């Protein structure tokens, strides 16, 4: 599992996460009065009326999260989400600026494209996350956005949205604190907290929840 960082580290993340046109100094220099809160959309997959809700806290830069999404999640989607048994909620966790950039790209196409882009992010994590310097990583993330059908101008706007960046980090901190999340991936099944697990373990818990 990957451990979360402190509130102080999150504050530093906000001050240093700007890319493309947003300079880090401009982010840190703005006063609270100048900042605009942006409403963050909860990313949900599956039927709203599903009897069981699974919520995952994950980071785009977490190798364990990538493994979960390449394995157990695929079975979860096929056997439970797509069959109307489970509503799946995905909440991002940020360890570093690259995870925030990935989140901003994933959200750039709206809820319709989010989960498709998320799968591309996790599938290619070892490539884009290890691309080298900031410019190279940003470039690889842009390629994923373009592959998903997002235009360059839209990607520029998403990556340079400083208000969205601050709101995403604040949203993550509020959620993780409220749910006592201290590592990723963390799963909640109908509100009950669980650590990372195999598909066999997950399906057993889901079947028990469905039988209640």
Automatic annotation (TrEMBL):
Residues 1-22 form the signal peptide. It comes from the Bacteria. Keywords: Signal. Gene3D superfamilies: Glutaredoxin. Pfam families: Thioredoxin_4. Residues 27-211 form the Thioredoxin domain. May be required for disulfide bond formation in some proteins. This is Thioredoxin-like protein.
